[in-house]
Amino acid sequence: MTLTQWLPLAVVCSLGAVSPGPSLAMVLRHTLKGGASRGMMAAVSHALGVGAYALLTVAGIGWLFEQWPMLYQGVSLLGACYLAWVGVQALSAARQPSATDATAVPATVDPSPWKDGICIALANPKLIVFFLALLSQFVDPTSTTSDRATIVLTALIIDGLWYVMVALVLSRPRPLGWLRQRESMIERLTGWVLLALAAGVFLDTFMMVGPL
């Protein structure tokens, strides 16, 4: 893959990475709970999930979804269920004492950032659409193994770098202090955003299936 061919790919992957959504909320939440190290773990794990979707794209998963639309619908519904579950967890955490309260009772430990990062990536229907609609344009029958590896690594590295940078910036004392003062509000906002996204996926999927 030449530089001229790679640059549009890098731009597309960059736009996909910086697009706000459940992935940003997840990295923000883990950074808020555990600082830079926890946020970066979630960021790296999320990048691995993105890399997995990129690998499936270059391997031809789009053809499978075209042949078996119910497979795509099933993946979307499973993703929506996970987004809804994380949303409920965030709303539950919002009712717990704030970490900035010296008298607070220690809350239940959040799910591992490694698990949360990769699951949010794999469960995000936006990523499925992104890879099928945009990234697949860079793959054709003449693409070499090197070209396909470049596509996967570009998507993985750009996503990882972006969210690691987000975690590092948000974990600095001033922004982290500001965020922790509004921890309950952020948890509630995260929860409702994730539930709204899950509801939208459920609605879109059932409209795709049609009336029974």
UniProtKB/TrEMBL annotation:
It comes from the Bacteria. It is a multi-pass membrane protein. The chain crosses the membrane at residues 6-28, 40-65, 118-139, 151-170, 191-209. One of its GO terms (molecular function) is amino acid transmembrane transporter activity. Its main location: membrane. This is LysE family translocator. The keyword ATP-binding does not apply. Keywords: Cell membrane, Membrane, Transmembrane, Transmembrane helix. It is found in: Cell membrane. One of its GO terms (cellular component) is plasma membrane. InterPro entries: LeuE-type. It comes from Larsenimonas rhizosphaerae. It holds the Pfam family LysE. The keyword Protein biosynthesis does not apply.
